[in-house]
Design a protein that fits this description.
The structure is a single chain. By secondary structure, the chain is mainly α. Among the domains are: 39-147, no CATH class; 216-237 and 259-268, no CATH class; 271-362, DNA Binding (I), subunit A, CATH 1.10.30. It is 45% helix and 6% strand. The protein contains 14 helices and six strands. A two-stranded antiparallel sheet has the order 1-2. A two-stranded antiparallel sheet has the order 3-4. Strands 5-6 form a two-stranded antiparallel ribbon. A hairpin with a 4-residue loop joins β1 and β2 (94-97). The longest helix is centred in the N-terminal third of the chain and has 21 residues, at 104-124. The relative contact order is 0.08. The model is unreliable at 232-252 and 263-269 (pLDDT under 50).
Length: 362
C-alpha cells in the first residue's frame, strides 16, 4: 500500500497542474451539465430509435453524446458500436442489433428500460441492481458518471483500473471482483483521503493518470520499442527523497536497501471470467465469507465486500463454474493465494463447496 508520504509527494507534484486547469475543469462540468439537460432521466423512457442510435448522421443522439461529445470527460472508444446494443450501419443503411435482440424495435424498448433502471439504481447507489443492468460495462460506467459524477469514477478501461489498484496497493492482482467493485475501491481511496476528498472526480482521474500512467499495449508501440515493455527499468524514485533518515536505518542489522529502486514494467494476459458466476456466488453468500464465516467490510452502499475465488486456479485448468468458486473476505482470499496454509485451505474449501451443493439439493 502506498504510504502517506509517498502519496503527498505525488499530490504536491500534481497541485500546480490542478490549480492551473480550473477553467478547463469548469468547462468540462458545463459540458456534462449540457448532456444531462438534453437527456434528463425523465426523457430516457421516451427516446425514439433515432434519438438513441449512433451512425445515422446525427451528432445529437444519446449514444453520440455519450461516446464522442463527452469524450473529454472519459473515453469509451476502442470497441465497436455494438456496445450500444443497436446502431445504424452507414454501409448497409440498416439498423444493426446484437444477437440478444430480434430487431431494432425490441432493442430500443429493452435498452430504454435498462438505462432508466440504471439511473434510478445509480441515484440510490444500489450496486447490486447496477450489476444486473444488461448493457456493456463501459457504456454503463460512462452513463453513471455523466449523471452522478460525485458517486462514480470516469475511468472505464478495466485494465487501467487494475493498473491503478496495483500501483496504489489496494487489491490482489488476480482478485475475482468485477469492474464496479474495483471502481468502488478507487472511489473509497479518494473519499478517505483528506486532500483528495476535496477534489472533483475529474481532478482525481487526472491525478491517477499523472501519477501512474499505464503503459500502452504492445500493438500500439513501435517495433523498435516493444522489447522494452518486458524488461526491468531503473528509474529514480524521488518519492522517497527526504525519507532516507527513517529510524530503520539506525538498526545495525537492517538491510541497506536501495535509494534508487528498480521499477519492473510488465505486460501479460489473463483469463476471461464469467461475471454471472462471480455475481451468483457473491449474492448467495449474503456478505458472509464462506471460509471464516465473518462479514466482509462495509462498502459505501451498506453492503459487505467479498471476493470470488477459484479454488482450483484457472491457470491449473480449474473450471469457471459455481462449483469451483467460493466467496471469501479479502484476508482469506490473500491467504488462499499466498499463505503457507493455502493447500489445507484449498481442501477445506472443496468440502465447503460440497456441503453447499448438498444443502441446495436437499
Amino acid at each position: 500500500m502506498i504510504t502517506e508520504n509517498e502519496l503527498r509527494i505525488k499530490q504536491v507534484r500534481f497541485e500546480s497542474e490542478r490549480q492551473a486547469n480550473q477553467s478547463f475543469y469548469r468547462k468540462l462540468e458545463k459540458l456534462r451539465q449540457n448532456f444531462v439537460s438534453k437527456f434528463p432521466p425523465s426523457r430516457i423512457p421516451h427516446l425514439t430509435l433515432d434519438d438513441y442510435v449512433e451512425g445515422k448522421g446525427s451528432k445529437d443522439s444519446f449514444c453520440y453524446w455519450v461516446e464522442w461529445k463527452t469524450s473529454e470527460l472519459g473515453r469509451i472508444q476502442g470497441s465497436n458500436a455494438s456496445k450500444f446494443g443497436v446502431f445504424f450501419d452507414k454501409k448497409t443503411q440498416l439498423y444493426e442489433v446484437t444477437s440478444k435482440f430480434k430487431d431494432e424495435i425490441a432493442a430500443i424498448i429493452f435498452l430504454r428500460e435498462q438505462i432508466a433502471r440504471l439511473l434510478e439504481a445509480g441515484r440510490t447507489n444500489n450496486l447490486e441492481v447496477i450489476r444486473q443492468i444488461e448493457i456493456s460495462p463501459m457504456f454503463k460506467g460512462k452513463i453513471l458518471f455523466l449523471y452522478y459524477p460525485e458517486k462514480y469514477l470516469n475511468i472505464f478501461s478495466e485494465d487501467h483500473i487494475d493498473h491503478f489498484l496495483r500501483e496504489i496497493g489496494l487489491a490482489v492482482p488476480d482478485a475475482d471482483i468485477d469492474v464496479l467493485a474495483k471502481r468502488e475501491l478507487l472511489h473509497a481511496f479518494k473519499s478517505n483521503d483528506e486532500i483528495m476528498s476535496n477534489w472533483t472526480t475529474q481532478e482525481f482521474m487526472r491525478f491517477l493518470y499523472d501519477a501512474w500512467r499505464p503503459l500502452p499495449k504492445s500493438s500500439k508501440v513501435p517495433e523498435a520499442l516493444r522489447k522494452y515493455l518486458n524488461v526491468e527499468v531503473q528509474t529514480l524514485d524521488n518519492d522517497r527523497v527526504g525519507l532516507q533518515n527513517s529510524t530503520i536505518d539506525d538498526i545495525p542489522s537492517a538491510p541497506i536497501g536501495s535509494k534508487v529502486p528498480t521499477r519492473i514494467l510488465t505486460a501479460g494476459s489473463r483469463f476471461q471470467r464469467d461475471e454471472k458466476v462471480r455475481r451468483f456466488v457473491i449474492e448467495q453468500a449474503k456478505g458472509t465469507c464462506e471460509y471464516c464465516r465473518e462479514l466482509g467490510f462495509i462498502l459505501p452502499d451498506g453492503s459487505h465486500y467479498l471476493e470470488a475465488h477459484h479454488i482450483i486456479a484457472l491457470a491449473n485448468q480449474g473450471p469457471d463454474t459455481v462449483d469451483n468458486v467460493i466467496a471469501l473476505c479479502p484476508s482469506d482470499h490473500r491467504e488462499a493465494h499466498y499463505g503457507a496454509n493455502s493447500v489445507a485451505m484449498e481442501n477445506e474449501m472443496i468440502e465447503i463447496i460440497k456441503n453447499r451443493k448438498n444443502a441446495q439439493i436437499a
